[in-house]
């Protein structure tokens, strides 16, 4: 019995095809063509998505193929080729909202990109002419109101494709274009609405006698936003680019030096560099000077830019001669249009471009007085060649002086090099923010303070 068991295991481990029934079946699974799948071995056989629809015409016909699975292969190739032939194109609906990219709409909002003609208005100042929408976005006021306030502009114009057409918003009675003074008013019997300014036309008695209901006057700008018929739809606000108040401040400052700048320019290196912040305490005068010197330079550049931008053209001149035999030019320089105020002693440059009878001329003078009629009296330094027979077509420019800023820079350099010797040890440490003991000056003060020819000081003046 043991011999039979041994023979059995020996047959299983070493089969004898001639005498034993326990043999393994031998099939050639790697050599028959019925089980051959060449498409899984060769990457060339796989179709790519870039194949065109014409690949279906060259697909293998399952009836003429020697492989049983070639029909399935042809179907797969046809489907892949069909999908690859589909063209997915951009509709281009968002072109107006990608500011600075692609075909940007000219009348799109310079902040967010909204370009609906019924929702945008143009700043009508000749040096600006930018378009803004009436949506708020992430700010408390609308974009057009934000721009008007920060740029100190007051005139706007509607789009030509808007319901009211290309219209400049102005007062019906006096023609005032200050949108912050304008409001709507309707007739009592007719369905007519006009724009009327708050001062002075709303209080004019002549208008009260007309068929206007003055009690129904409402401002054009309410809650930092223009009226409802200018507000964009909710869908346009959601699709618009989101901009923060900080970005608006930066781009408005950038427009003062580069009117064609975009929001993308804020990302350029060096544009958004902030100066070193002011500290409460400083180690020494070197650190103090390194912090304040760049700030004084920035203030000087800003003051120079603001003064040089206050030029006025087409100024009418009234000529006169002063007691010192110098020429004096009188002209009106509107205060409401200037951030800077003229004071006696300011230097101005008076220019004339010339004509057929007079050559080009310019001269520098200083303001000697300001009349009650808002006239500026400018005394010229040179009286030779003054076109006194011409009264129109002059230009006035500010002459910027760096005297005050040069003195500040010089004082800091003196403090840096001489240190306590220049101002005294107590003042020196106080400027740097160091803790020092208060010094008490013990002197016998007089009971009465006065000077010859002057009244005595009272108790509050001592």
From TrEMBL:
CDD domains: 1B_UPF1-like (cd21407), ZBD_UPF1-like (cd21400). GO terms for cellular component: cytoplasm. Pfam families: UPF1_1B_dom (PF18141), UPF1_Zn_bind (PF09416). GO terms for molecular function: ATP binding; RNA binding; RNA helicase activity; zinc ion binding. Residues 1-21, 34-73 are annotated as: Disordered. Keywords: Metal-binding, Zinc, Zinc-finger. Residues 171-201 are annotated as: C4. Residues 1-17, 49-73 have a biased composition (Polar residues). InterPro entries: UPF1_1B_dom, UPF1_CH/ZBD. PROSITE patterns: UPF1_CH_RICH. GO terms for biological process: nuclear-transcribed mRNA catabolic process, nonsense-mediated decay. Residues 101-258 form the Upf1 domain. This is Upf1 domain-containing protein. The lineage of its organism: Eukaryota, Viridiplantae, Streptophyta, Embryophyta, Tracheophyta.
